[in-house]
Amino acid sequence: MSKIAFIGFGEVNTPKELIVKKCGAAEEALKAQGAELISCYPVTDDPEEKDIRKALDTLAGKDFDCLVLCVAGWIPSHAVIKVTEPYRHKPMVLWGLCGWMEEGRLVTTADQAGTSALRKTFQDLGYTFRYVYDIVGLPSRAPAVARFAKAAAAAAYLRSAKTGMAGYRDMNLYATLCDGSSLKRVVGPEIETFEMLEIEQRYQKITEEEKQAVVDKAMANWKFLKPADPESLKKAAGYYLAVKAICDERGYGAVSLKDVDGMKKLLGFPPAPVFMLLSDEDGLCTVPENDCLGGVTQLIVKALTGQCAYYLEFYEFFADRVLAGVPDFVPAEATDGPVTVMPAAFGELSEGILNVSKLKTGPVTLCRLFATNGRYGMHLVTGEGLTPRRWEEAGWTQPAPQLPGLEVKLADTEGFAQKVMCQHYIVSYGDNTEIIRDLCEILKIAVI
Question: Which domains are assigned to the chain?
Answer without folding.
Answer: 3-158 (3.40.50.1070), 162-447 (3.20.14)
